[in-house]
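Chain A, query sequence.
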Amino acid sequence: MDILNLNYAEFERFLFVLFRVGAMVIFVPILGSRQIPSVMKIGLMLFLSMAIFPLVQDRPMPEPKGLFELSKFLMADVTIGLGIAYIARLIFTAVQVAGTVVDFQMGFGVVNVIDPQTDTQVSVTAQFHNILAVLLFLAIDAHHYIIQAIVESFFVINPFEIDFSSITPEYMLHLFSATFTTAIKIAAPIMAILFFLSVGLGLVARTVPQMNVFIVGFPLQIGVGLLMVGLSISFFTILVENEMHAMPVKLMGFMRGL
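Chain A, predicted structure.
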């Protein structure tokens, strides 16, 4: 099929693919960053849409009878694309929450840097962990899971039976709450050591009142915290990689819930 010479019916079906892919590209990790030029995003949307359309053109798609129905079905496609990207972004949210908690325990709570993906201020450790997560995301080809999920969504989701008020909100809330569990797992080794260090400093303050524990403890917490961040990189890598490999199951659960 010549993708550049579509009739009206085929162009209407192509719009459903374009809007679903476009919503995913805008919100997905890395590609959704504000640092990526808009021209590149638009080009990627068109390229992916043209590559996916021949694979799904024979699937049942809505046949709207007016502008209102067309807008309604396009909004449904946008929501599906955003949902797929949202599930992928939750992994990076867990990484940033873990880094923020660790920095608060270390005394880096007021030290923030700009995250190029979201253009917001994040803590130093969170940014370091976020860079590692991005490298892992690309190294294990996790972005292929998202593209595969977009293609499979046209085969799994029945466009005539989409119901966002059924099990989907509950499932998304479950994934959102699991994000904090993952964040605690990432930060747990460092938080545990810093907690015991704080307990030890408290005992020293009670037994040796002449010592200024605050002056001694502040650089000690930073040093031990940074040491633990380095030692826990292997644990961090394994945990984040497992979460990324579990992404297809979460994406399929989201699509089957519609």
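The beta strands are 112-115, 120-123. The longest strand covers residues 112-115.
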